[in-house]
């Protein structure tokens, strides 16, 4: 709510492509609908043609909630960065909450984030912790704790992503002023946060897990190999070019992060769950 007690209007932004799991997608949408503060609109970007099952889920939700959904159709798969870039522009409201197609938002997620924006008009982005699960939502494997304050976020961002992308709510104008999402293999959000930091955006995290995030061995398979090493080096080069890291930090980050990308999946899983959480 805003300072006068009125409900704040906001959009939820979701990108989806053909390989998403229909059952997970349906559960994710239900969690967005079943909030203590219901979104004013839900923007779904179809990143290329979808399967019949995914299209049917979207159509069923549109029938159940007329006028709530705004569907953006991209003619071909462009990847998450460009899909979200298009979605941001189409969102009707200043506040936008990100949501993934296979995660579960806890019922009070949006209400608690909106309160932070209501309490501090200067805030540009609010994230939260996540709980990572595999299989059933109550099978929690780990929690990803992130820094809470502006100063700690800045320091942490020099080494790692300071936000859980699936939890963030941000101001559209702040995202656009920082250049919107840019295409990357996997770290389009991290690159955006750093550019927002360089623009002196006000950012914070809530010290509570408000999203349940699916994880597992398949995630680690996707995040290893030479293509991810190249992406890490490219990202660090951009950080260096805009003055966010110095040459020592650049070299250290490239070495450490590349080593993790080249580890066997099981060992990389241990690093993620035991050391980076």
Structure notes:
It is a single chain. This protein is an alpha/beta fold. The chain has 2 domains: 10-215, Spore Coat Polysaccharide Biosynthesis Protein SpsA, Chain A, CATH 3.90.550.10; 222-275, no CATH class. 44% of the residues lie in helices and 21% in strands. It contains 11 helices and 9 strands. The protein has helices at residues 22-33, 52-64, 80-90, 109-119, 150-157, 172-177, 188-198, 217-222, 226-241, 247-262, 265-275; strands at residues 10-16, 41-47, 69-74, 95-98, 104-105, 123-133, 140-144, 169-171, 202-214. Strands 1, 2, 3, 4, 5, 6, 7, 8 and 9 form a 9-stranded mixed β-sheet that branches. The protein is globular and about 55 Å long. The two termini are 32 Å apart. The model has no long low-confidence stretch (mean pLDDT 90). One of its GO terms (molecular function) is glycosyltransferase activity.
Q: Which outline best applies?
A: globular
**Secondary structure: helix percent:** 40-55%
Number of domains: 2
- CATH class of the largest domain, please? Alpha Beta
Structural class: alpha/beta
Instruction: Give the distance, in angstroms, between the N- and C-terminal Cα atoms.
Output: 32 Å
GO molecular function, one term: glycosyltransferase activity
Pfam family, one: Glycos_transf_2
Family: Belongs to the glycosyltransferase 2 family.
Protein name: Glycosyl transferase family 2
């Amino acid at each position: 709510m805003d300072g006068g007690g009125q409900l704040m209007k906001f959009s939820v932004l979701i990108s989806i492509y053909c390989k998403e799991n229909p059952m997970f997608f349906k559960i994710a949408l239900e969690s967005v609908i079943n909030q203590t503060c219901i979104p004013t609109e839900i923007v779904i970007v179809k990143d290329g043609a979808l399967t019949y099952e995914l299209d049917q889920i979207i159509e069923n939700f549109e029938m159940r909630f007329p006028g709530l959904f705004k569907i953006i159709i991209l003619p071909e798969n462009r990847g998450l960065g460009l899909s979200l870039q298009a979605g941001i522009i189409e969102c009707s409201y200043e506040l936008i909450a990100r949501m993934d197609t296979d995660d579960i938002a806890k019922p009070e997620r949006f209400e608690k984030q909106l309160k932070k924006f209501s309490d501090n008009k200067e805030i540009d982005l609010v994230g939260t912790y996540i709980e990572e699960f595999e299989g059933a939502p109550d099978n929690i494997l780990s929690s990803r704790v992130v820094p809470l304050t502006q100063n700690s976020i800045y320091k942490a961002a020099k080494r790692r992503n300071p936000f859980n992308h699936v939890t963030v709510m941000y101001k559209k104008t702040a995202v656009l002023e920082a250049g919107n999402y840019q295409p990357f293999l996997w770290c389009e959000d991290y690159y955006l946060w750093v550019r927002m930091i360089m623009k002196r955006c006000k950012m914070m995290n809530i010290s509570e897990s408000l999203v349940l995030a699916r994880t597992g061995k398949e995630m680690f398979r996707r995040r290893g190999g030479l293509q991810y090493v190249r992406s890490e080096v490219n990202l660090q080069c951009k950080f260096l070019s805009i003055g966010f890291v110095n040459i020592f930090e650049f070299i250290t980050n490239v070495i450490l992060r590349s080593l993790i990308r080249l580890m066997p999946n099981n060992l990389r899983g241990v690093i993620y769950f035991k050391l980076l959480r």
